[in-house]
Amino acid sequence: EAEVAQSPRYKITEKSQAVAFWCDPISGHATLYWYRQILGQGPELLVQFQDESVVDDSQLPKDRFSAERLKGVDSTLKIQPAELGDSAMYLCASSLLGQGRAEAFFGQGTRLTVV
Amino acid sequence: GESVGLHLPTLSVQEGDNSIINCAYSNSASDYFIWYKQESGKGPQFIIDIRSNMDKRQGQRVTVLLNKTVKHLSLQIAATQPGDSAVYFCAETMANQAGTALIFGKGTTLSVSS
Question: A93 CB near a chain B CB, below 8 Å?
Fold first, then answer.
């Protein structure tokens, strides 16, 4: 069964350091999302791609976060510099949303701890 | 602002009982409503969805009901099993200036005791 792949699964970094997360969506899924989930809360959208284009990054803290999906397939989310408040689960999801299907499929996430 | 929310943060049931998890939404323009299950340390897993022009949809042991009059969504789980213990989120898709967004509510933690 096709899955969304994310790496690493866990990351511990010191504050002020740079950190990057990688996501490989399900093949053929044009829509890709990055979400941040704080423990006990629902996922919050950070950025949404349609193919290689960003269609919504209104909730992305652009002073320190960046995201790219250069070839419209896999994607990278970067934080520089990391802050203590960035500790959370970072989830990637992909869907056929722009192709008539609504459900998004999630990866296992990257658990980030900033110390 | 517009958001998807859930009525109860926790729900405890006995194995074999039926469970009902509720969600209230505020955006009348949403196209789809989706229920996700999230187990500890894992990403959300799709359970079932319903289009805004439907009021009921059934899956295996699960039923989703949509009441657009009162903007209410519910997930019914029949014969709840210990493996159903997880956090359940409702989500809605809504059009924004950039396309279509998938917005989540806060979640209900379902605990099933045997």
Answer: yes
